[in-house]
Amino acid sequence: MLSLKKVSVQSFEDNIAYIHKSCTGYRAFDVKTITRIEIHGGIQPVYASLHITEDINIVKPDELGLNSEAYEKLGLPEGANVSIAQSPQPPSVESVKRKMEGSILSAGEYTAVINDISSNRYSMMEVASFLVACGSFMTAQEILSLTEAIAGENERVFWDNEEMVVDHHCIGGIPGNKVDLIIAPIVAAYGMAIPKTAARSITSCSGVADVMGVLANVDFNETKLKQLVTENRGAIVCKDSLSIAPASKILSTVERSVGVINQQHVAASILALKLATGITHLVLDVPVGPKARIKSMPEAMRLRKLIEYVGDMLSIEVDVVVTDGSEPIGSGVGAVLEARDVMRVLRCKDNAPQDLREKSLFLAGRLLEFDPNLRGGQGYHIAKDILDSGKALEMMNKIIYSQGREAPPVLGQLTRDVVANTTGVVEAIDNNRIMRIGVLAGASQDRGAGLDLIKKVGDSVEQGETLFRIHSTNPTDFAFANGVVEGYSGYEISPRSHY
Amino acid sequence: MLSLKKVSVQSFEDNIAYIHKSCTGYRAFDVKTITRIEIHGGIQPVYASLHITEDINIVKPDELGLNSEAYEKLGLPEGANVSIAQSPQPPSVESVKRKMEGSILSAGEYTAVINDISSNRYSMMEVASFLVACGSFMTAQEILSLTEAIAGENERVFWDNEEMVVDHHCIGGIPGNKVDLIIAPIVAAYGMAIPKTAARSITSCSGVADVMGVLANVDFNETKLKQLVTENRGAIVCKDSLSIAPASKILSTVERSVGVINQQHVAASILALKLATGITHLVLDVPVGPKARIKSMPEAMRLRKLIEYVGDMLSIEVDVVVTDGSEPIGSGVGAVLEARDVMRVLRCKDNAPQDLREKSLFLAGRLLEFDPNLRGGQGYHIAKDILDSGKALEMMNKIIYSQGREAPPVLGQLTRDVVANTTGVVEAIDNNRIMRIGVLAGASQDRGAGLDLIKKVGDSVEQGETLFRIHSTNPTDFAFANGVVEGYSGYEISPRSHY
């Protein structure tokens, strides 16, 4: 028996166990290769990668150290008695090996793999191997099996009293895209149930959950979500607060880290989340652009067909909408600035970004048209009416009040205006570059940081005129952002107008 | 600038950097996903995975911690000034992605991938992705490119004054297989140059380098290797001591951890090592058996053809020999016991294991027949003559003396005889089980530990008679080995003789 110790180390989704080189338990292991161990003593065993130390400040020979992630999962206090054993490779890895060889796996095999991944029985290398093996070839039936496996059987949200539960999802990659926070109140004001599950940023400047988090609490559980949607028709919740689809977080961390983005897995992970949230009708926005996640129309079309097929098999009505992903949406990039844009649109202010307003109305209209009683083509107009009449704003305030208003973070006061070095017309704005500058300005960690895009594609600019403004709260971040912006601002200006 | 600190953590080939959550350098990173950073200040940058801590006992805000592996690579003292930067994904990862999509990669692409892997620019997940992507399909030309990339251009051993440089290699998986230490002195005594590169155990009870290490020093560099072979015609060196094929260690660690063993990569990694060592003629032993790495004759045949093709393209003359891999070779399993077997065979003792002697003579004969002046079919007889006349023993003593005799470790004195529970004939011995019991007895970490196999397949046994003896030096290991042996000893005894 070893004594549990928390080792303050964050390692991004991987559980790590530390044992001292002189620990007796360690001698039982084949430790010349990377080893996974299992830790017993809690309600459920926790699986972790083994790191060996000779420093008693990290762990003593009679201690077992767990990093922050693993410690939390085990759920025992420091000093608790735990036992360890070398964890054999889970049997489902055989299925991964068969997939590597080109086999078609059964639904049961996908369930076994996903269950082992969600309980951390796979090393990150094994998860990567699974994703790559799936990437080479999957039948439509296999994608369906994978989707159902990720959604799980029991951890779903069940809506007993709702016939139609709708959602909007964007496959992402466009800075400043917070249409969800305008769509949700419009749709809820119309009376449709919309439990919007939103993500925090992983590699971007801000996720929808970060932006909503500026205005209201977004961390609550399934029970609260159902209660809020029943009362208000709409709610915006951070998906990490729900105990649904636990494998999807691990899968997407590895996917983003390695950069294995294959359409099969994009389709499976989106639909699994919607299936687990009990969504019956989904509008899926696929922005296409040279610097978007999806770069061409044929690629968008293949993804659309795939998602429609799997959606049909799961009885989720999916309306895939291909949109323009060539430049950022709205002005603000970063949580506080994006929340400002959202409220300007909801308040129908003159300075509200028109592209954000129009895109939101268009997509909300598509959602409203799921209503069989609505005449085709009326969705957009009804959405516009709900927005312009102030009903959407009223609903948003109700949602914010119900979820719990938060003290808003302050906009970064360290600013710099990035100016045009020539007179002309903004020809293009590079999404990736804007994202990078925003992240360096602090936006991915600090909600008050970000970029305010004053000029958008098609705007005329004079030499020396401001293109966008950097906001930081921290001098280090500010210096980093200033450093990279010198090289390339992401704006392309053609010297004369084409228009 | 941060101050360098060594953090005593072993993590099995992956470099890890620790920074404090309040470290200013850290704010520049997108740290919501797994991040690799580069550390500057040494002769070459070191690449590492980032772990974040809040414990100043691990690192303070102005410190950069490196785990044991990474610290050694950077080559700077503690307290040295270092700078860090977020490491972008190396451009060669694009080739890995293209391979995932089924593309055929060029020789230049394989070189770029392997160079980035050997400089630790890939995370372990990315290495796994590369191996899995290669596993689905590779052309023969691609295997050739991969082999040449692993061998590298400059880190090879060049033999200016040798026309023929020979070696023997076994693809492994058979406990107790130390034929190399009998083959090498026979071949060297004949006058052929044999720079035998041997491995330490990774997941097995002992590697050839561990067994030779009982008798002599095996850690020396290329210059010393060339000098020894020039003087004695033979030497046995641990391959990790040579600075050749640096990617191969990382590749095989990940391969073994995930269990992605594909023939393409087996062929490439063996031939790359031989190419880098300057081998011109190779006998490759492929043991086939139900509990060997290669389980069937068709599988052995495919591997043979593949290795012959790549060998031809590299101008390495390869003689692939398929042998019986159904049971362990010799009596001893574990370094000290195996060294004892080797010396018994070289000394032509009555108690020398006959299977070890015969297999060694057979394979040494195949090597000798690379000599164009030798009449076909004479190899075995000449090998036997060299062994029986004592010339092989004399050569072995010369090699041991030249490499430097080591004080031999003591055989484990904690012993237990595992006995037959029925009278009959030994029908089969499970290689995997013998390996597992040996590892638990301490053999992979402790050269004095291991198993002494008294009975082999075909031997008659009485109930209660000893099948094998467990040797441990450490009571904990001894208890572990005793624990598992109760369940299943690995021996199958049929109640009556079939013979």
Can you tell me the residue ranges of chain A where pLDDT is under 50 for at least 5 consecutive residues? none
Query: End-to-end distance of chain A, in Å?
Result: 76 Å
Q: Characterize the overall form of chain A.
A: globular
Oligomer: homodimer
Q: What this model shows, in words?
A:
2 copies of one chain form a homodimer. Chain A has 499 residues and is an alpha/beta fold. Chain A has 4 domains: 2-86, Beta Barrel (Barwin-like endoglucanases); 93-137, no CATH class; 166-239 and 266-403, Pyrimidine Nucleoside Phosphorylase, Chain A, domain 2, CATH 3.40.1030; 414-494, Pyrimidine nucleoside phosphorylase-like, C-terminal domain (Aldehyde Oxidoreductase, domain 3), CATH 3.90.1170.30. In chain A, 40% of the residues lie in helices and 20% in strands. Chain A has helices at 68-74, 93-100, 107-118, 124-136, 140-151, 180-190, 208-215, 222-232, 246-258, 263-277, 297-313, 335-346, 354-368, 379-388, 391-403, 431-440, 475-487; strands spanning 2-7, 9-10, 16-20, 36-40, 46-53, 63-67, 81-86, 166-170, 194-198, 234-238, 281-288, 317-324, 332-333, 414-419, 424-429, 450-453, 460-461, 466-472, 491-494. In chain A, the strands form 5 sheets. Chain A has a 6-stranded mixed beta barrel. In chain A, strands 13-16-18-14 form a 4-stranded antiparallel β-sheet. In chain A, helix 5 (140-151) packs across helix 11 (297-313). The model of chain A has no long low-confidence stretch (mean pLDDT 91). Strand 5 of chain A pairs antiparallel with strand 2 of chain B.
